[in-house]
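Quick start: what a row looks like.
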Amino acid sequence: MGDPIAFIIHYLLSAVSLLFLARFILQATHADFYNPISQGIVRYTDPVLNPLRKVIPTYKNLDLSAFVATWVTCAATIGGVAAMTGRFDSYVVVEILQSLGLTLGAIVAGVYRTFDLFLYFYWIAIFAMIIISLLAPTTYNPVTALLRDVCEPVLAPARRLLPVMGGLDLSPLIVFLVIGLLQHYLLPALFGTLFGGGP
């Protein structure tokens, strides 16, 4: 009985975490808030974030309340699933929980999960943008427009290192490489060493 309920909790809270993270990224990248998808994200997140902003103000273009909401939701996901099943799907999270205990471990692991989710978000967003540009390069739709708004601040620095050659933009390769290094090596090593006793 515990596992199916834990799966549902994991699924729902992960979706909520992604929603708060998307809100953070939208503001951080100055994405078009009049885009219908942006409007939907704003509508669903404002009931939680508006009261939270009274305690955690926005700094420049960083919606810190959305970041904190992502962190808290990730921590709740980890704590809830670990309490019900005694395990989690990330070895780094497991190490942190074993080292710090359930409550403090979930709080710290929530930070790790937030950064990991951020990297995963960009991997999916850039991949989706590439696929859409190949299948329908001249078609405008809200999804394509929003993906460009969100991904361009990340792709632009990579494009300066690896300029467009013969009409082929290879900048996503650099970004995918950096995301892979951060997600699979640097981030686990950092949190594993600081809080889990080793990478």
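That is the whole record. The chain has a mean pLDDT of 91. The radius of gyration is 18 Å.
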